[in-house]
Amino acid sequence: MTFVSGPVTVEVPASSANLGPGFDALGLALDLYDTVTAETIDSGLEIRVTGEGSNGVPLDETHLVVQAMHATFDLIGGRPDGLRLTCTNVIPHGRGLGSSSAAIVGGIVLARALVEGGGLLLDDASAFQLAVDIEGHPDNVAAALFGGLTIAWTDGAAAEVERLQTEVDVTVFVPPAAVSTEKARGLLPELVPHRDAAANAGRAALLIAALTVAPNRLISATEDWLHQSYRAEAMPDSYKLLRQLRVEGIPAIISGAGPTVLAFARGVADHAPEGWAVHELTVDQPGARVI
Ligand code: HSE
User: How far apart are CA 112 and CA 10, in angstroms?
Assistant: First the structure.
């Protein structure tokens, strides 16, 4: 296998999963980007991280971008002798904005681009499958890789995705403290009432219409019965803001496993509690890309 000479840089978007009723299925890519740059070197592993999470991430083979790169190299023919990696992180960690999916997808796209003819050895469908295998569920990685609005699912072990176009405006309210996805998933019940599942299915279907052709339906379409209320105890301030926004008729959801609150609206930043970060964002269309 031959590696390209010199550094390669990949930009990968943040993503919001679930979007209310689309639990573990829907993803939306957002124009907030992590940037990863790598080049092959004679030996060793050099990692430099700046920005979000730079004080907490490991600087060795367990770094998530490196894990994804190694998994990709192993799949398409072998690892380089050495690697120099620089990560410039903008996506907040542990806030439900897809930072781990961005790391995984960024690593895969970066490793593929470092291999001569890598695009032929690993097409986007295979890159997506690898990302899902590493992440464990497909919603954030689908949006991070393909951009836009994604519906993702698994058929047995096989990951599938349908990408749709949407241009909705978004405001995200990011609280100062993280909540782990593991903790948030641990709060979900084993079973839900049939009436809740039925209501949720209807709103998930409506949400696709609302995000593509019928934006006036967004407030009804973002109602959820499967996860947000169960997780409220882990993120009470987020849940309170969510209810406040919705009472005012602003379509709002918990982004992914939380605790970020996402509103499908502009001009609502003044609702942010003190100490929270606010970003007015648009939908990223291309997904992860070599720049
Ligand atoms: N769908 C996932 C969840 C997203 O809500 O747990 C977080 O990775």
Answer: 11
